[in-house]
User: Which sequence fits this backbone?
């Protein structure tokens, strides 16, 4: 069985939880960076206001209340990079000193003539300074715990949800074409899985019933058609020895019996499951067996038979169906040919049965056309089983040819085509 659905669901949830945790961690880190600047600025504003109030009340500038804040007489007392940046951006509060330390500085107006610069050394307390490592480690730890706990909870829940579907899949896998157990869908929940199981069981039962009907039909046809044919053949032998029936009528009756027997054999072979089995068959030997199986009375004394099949020509097919196909084409050529001649050849993957019709003008049109299409529907059915193409070509004053494409270039479907004359 391929990968289980529950595994895919757990992986998808773990991936989703991990992405959400990373996004949440990014938001927390971004908020921390913004919030700490606002906190430091608020402290700086509060201390500036306190210094201004103390100076106005006592006339003396006191030391800042926060130990990380210092008062400088002016911007000139600060490093050169800070002075240049302040000159470009007078409203800027956050600065970076040459050593990489971050400070927040604000000018405090004590009087119209006097002012100082209040500087807060925020580097030791800032998130970007020393606290980002433990905060990041804590966020990663919390993310791992959340992903692990969520995946475990989902695992328990998903296993319960997909257990019926897994049980259904195992039952179908164990069946492997065998009949399903009675009440196959019982015990499954009344949801999509149970509905799917009931539909599969219903379709399976219908298929079994259909196959049973086909087996019964094949058995009945084999008995009900073969038995009357046997009786008719016995009567035919009796009529052949009695008076009141001409030899032509006896021959015609025998031909019809042979044709019906061949039709029944083909239909029964197509209806059987074992007819789908294939093996490599020597085409030349198969044609030879079919020819030798015909009684001597089938062949006129002046019949010209030519067989041109290269040695070791093989075809992958069902032996019984190939024999019936060759017999059908051979009977069609013998019974409806205009002259006592037949050319059997195999070239380029095409097996051809060709009858010369040089004297076709001397025969009635209906007689000449009688063989065209006779039994070819059954031949096409056999070709359809193997994915071959049956092609019929009739040319006035030339040949009547039935050709079967046995190679890979044939067209599946067993269709009969008539190329333009």
Assistant:
């Amino acid at each position: 069985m391929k990968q289980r659905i529950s595994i895919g669901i757990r992986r998808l949830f773990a991936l989703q939880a991990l992405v959400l945790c990373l996004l949440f961690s990014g938001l927390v880190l971004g908020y921390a960076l913004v919030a700490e600047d606002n906190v430091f600025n608020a402290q700086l504003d509060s201390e500036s206001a306190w210094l201004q109030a103390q100076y106005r009340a006592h006339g003396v500038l006191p030391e800042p209340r926060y130990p990380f804040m210092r008062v400088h007489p002016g911007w000139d007392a600060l490093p050169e990079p800070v002075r240049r940046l302040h000159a470009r951006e007078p409203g800027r509060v956050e600065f970076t000193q040459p050593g990489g330390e971050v400070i927040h500085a604000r000018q405090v107006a004590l009087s119209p003539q006097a002012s100082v610069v209040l500087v807060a050394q925020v580097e030791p307390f800032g998130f970007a300074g020393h606290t980002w490592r433990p905060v990041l480690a804590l966020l990663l730890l919390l993310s791992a715990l959340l992903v692990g706990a969520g995946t475990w909870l989902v695992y328990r829940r998903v296993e319960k949800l997909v257990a019926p579907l897994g049980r259904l899949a195992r039952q179908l896998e164990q069946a492997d074409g065998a009949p399903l157990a009675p009440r196959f869908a019982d015990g499954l929940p009344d949801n999509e899985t149970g509905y799917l199981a009931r539909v599969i069981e219903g379709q399976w039962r219908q298929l079994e019933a259909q196959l049973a009907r086909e087996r019964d039909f094949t058995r009945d046809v084999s008995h009900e058609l073969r038995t009357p044919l046997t009786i008719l053949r016995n009567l035919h032998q009796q009529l052949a020895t009695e008076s009141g029936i001409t030899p032509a009528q006896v021959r015609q009756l025998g031909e019809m019996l042979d044709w019906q027997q061949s039709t029944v054999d083909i239909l029964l072979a197509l209806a059987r499951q074992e007819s789908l089995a294939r093996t490599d068959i020597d085409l030349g030997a198969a044609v030879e067996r079919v020819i030798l199986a015909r009684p001597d009375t089938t062949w006129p004394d002046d019949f010209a038979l030519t067989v041109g099949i290269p040695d070791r020509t093989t075809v992958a097919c069902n032996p019984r169906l190939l024999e019936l196909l060759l017999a059908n084409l051979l009977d069609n050529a013998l019974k409806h040919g205009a002259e006592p001649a037949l050319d059997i050849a195999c070239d380029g993957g095409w097996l051809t049965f060709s009858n010369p019709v040089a004297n076709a003008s001397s025969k009635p049109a209906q007689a000449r056309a009688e063989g065209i299409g006779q039994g070819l529907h059954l031949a096409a059915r056999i070709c359809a089983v193997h994915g071959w193409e049956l092609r019929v070509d009739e040319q006035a004053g030339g040949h009547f040819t039935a050709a079967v494409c046995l190679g890979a270039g044939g067209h599946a479907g067993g269709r009969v085509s008539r190329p333009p004359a």
About this structure: The first helix runs from residue 5 to 58. The chain has three domains: 5-146, 179-275, 277-421. Residues 277-421 form a domain with the Heat Shock Protein 90 fold (CATH 3.30.565.10). The chain is about 55% helix and 15% strand.
